Amino acid sequence: MPISKTDFVRALQCQKMLWLDSHHPEEKIIPPEVQARLDAGNDFGDGAMGIFGEYVETTTYREDGRLHFAAMLEKTKQLLEENTPVVCEAAFSWYGNYCAADILKKDGNSYALYEVKNSAAVRKEFLVDLGFQRLILRKNGVPLSSSHLVLPALNEPLKIDEEGGHVRVETVFHGDIAYKIVDVTAAAKRMERLAEKHIFEFGKLKRKDAPCPLIGVGEHCDTPYRCWYYEYCHGIVSLDGIDGCNTADIHDAVNKETNDGQETP
């Protein structure tokens, strides 16, 4: 089954998370404050589209309000053929695996890729996101010159996760808002290799007959984000009656593995 960049980032945190997304999404709990941050991130992304001047956005909706992916893919193809300088939400697919690049900017005979994040830090999951996009774009024959994060220019030092390595930062203004553009090309290339290694493996989790991964609770439940199935997996919401995903069964299986196959008392 094909996956999106969001699917990939979530599966890298916990494969069971993506399995639940596909098999039991009704158990997802998104706290209001988290939804508010997601909405603010979307608004920040919309506002950043014009940082390089005029642009063309591919976002297209069906009559029922859902995204029209096929139309976005076709529009992106046409815009690239026309050498459009700046394309926002540029859509690409490879074996059904899908991503939409926040900003794709013409750079000579190549393109510079930009991912917009409403965060004061360069985080590993952002680099993973860019790595997935790089893979899909390059499999579509799009030559990439560089990869960047676009972050708010706050009055505090830029925080960089270890995976970010050495980065170059510049500040640009769009209207009254300042943005930091962080060149993370080297780190994004490393994450591209990670994406290519796992993309089809993670896709198998979405199959109808895919068993629930035997993954117990742990630090990954909160890192880098609190999982939307936290209550579900911690037994606050009962898992009884869901084949292959009973909390007690998972803990038993994990404990047996960690004890070299010896049954726990």
Structure notes:
- With 265 residues, the chain is α/β, with parallel strands linked by helices.
- The chain has one domain (5-13, 22-206).
- Helices cover 37% and strands 21% of the residues.
- It has helices at residues 5-13, 15-23, 32-48, 69-81, 124-139, 185-203, 230-233, 247-258; strands at 56-57, 86-94, 97-107, 110-116, 121-122, 144-152, 159-160, 168-174, 177-183.
- The strands form 2 sheets. The protein has a 7-stranded mixed sheet, sandwiched between helices. The protein has a two-stranded parallel sheet with strand order 5-7.
- The longest helix is centred in the last third of the chain and has 19 residues, at 185-203.
- It is globular, with a radius of gyration of 20 Å.
- The protein starts with a helix and ends in a 7-residue tail after the last helix.
- Mean pLDDT is 89; it is low at 238-244 and 257-265.
